[in-house]
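retry 2 of 3: previous attempt timed out while embedding N-(iminomethyl)-L-glutamic acid. Reduced batch size to 1 and resubmitted. Inputs unchanged:
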Amino acid sequence: MKLLFKNIKELLQVRNEPIKFVSGKDMGVLPTIKHAFLVAENGLISDFGTMDDCPSSSFDTIIDCTGKMLMPTWCDSHTHLVYAGNREAEFVDRINGLTYEEIANNGGGILNSAKVLQDTSEEALYNQSKVRLENIINLGTGAVEIKSGYGLTVEAELKMLRVIKRLKENYPIEIKATLLGAHAIPKEYKDNKDAYLDLVINELMPKVAEENLAEYIDVFCETGYFSVEDTNRILQAGKQYGFIPKIHVNQFTAIGGVQVGVKHNALSVDHLEVIRNIDVEALKTSKTMPVALPGCSYFLSIPYTPARKLINAGLPLALATDYNPGSAPSGNMNFVVSTACIKMKMTPEEAINAATINGAYAMGLQDKLGSITKGKLARLILTKPVNSYGVMPYSFGDNMVEKVFVF
Ligand SMILES: N=CN[C@@H](CCC(=O)O)C(=O)O
Ligand SMILES: [Zn+2]
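retry 2 succeeded.
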């Protein structure tokens, strides 16, 4: 199968030499080719350049992209899109004045989603989740990480991870699975958190490893959830199974989550709405990708991750949706990119870098996705006719994606 995209108004995120991620000032640079062509052969990018060099050999399909942009698909490195039901009632409770924390303390929040998920069959969970996955693919996502964490029993966590595995088998995009057994403390373990950690470490982890259900390990390191010591224990235990850490830190309070992540060579530390200078310093010593989740800040009306502080310190930054029923019920990366520009003062170049190559790195996919580079997967977004790429984040709430190519 050989495809030619011709007359592309602008081809975005062109990297002739492979890169792992971009950081600091380099995030403000988005290399492009104007009036371009691209050839995709058997699902891989095989050639691109200006229309002056457009090949004339025979193609199975020729797509005329006059007036439109072509770019790599979004890489969404943090989601919880496998969940059951929704938390619309809590949404209304928050409108009426309760806080996210108060709702959680009253037995709602993550525990609410866990109860519904425990009572949902694997088949029903798959059917609910696949609708969300299909929706985000149509919105331009070509790789996604999905976490467990709404099971909170061995059986229900395995159910979630098996659903993720089935999605992986049935859909053409890259899916990475993360074990988030330590997402909340189940009611039965309220006064005995250590016993729950024992269950995660001694019973859940070996089963997940045996069935090869996850590549990454996550912990909600936060006041009232799991401490730095708990996080350290889980990450240490995960090491013997080869689980790589990608953890929730600094969402509401900064308690040392960044440091424990860096200590364990976490691939990413995510949320970071609250960040201290010592956290920035710790990240500078690491290869850990900071990940911001502006959809969560928007939905909960909590601070946005201080992108400027991180980027001005020379660090990289990735953007992801956090798609979940409680704090970010949207998997729309276009909205995330737009919100990062509007609320976090990221430039369109920075936001697009953060949502493509840096997102790919935060899933270990930087060699396969995240840029227009020969040999990478031809997962592509064709936009509607636009004057410039800045119009995409500018037109917040509009869908500027015309077609998504995921082979
Ligand atoms: N913060 C922890 N976990 C999710 C939200 C969980 C929920 O409210 O269901 C998050 O990343 O925001
Ligand atoms: Zn999350």
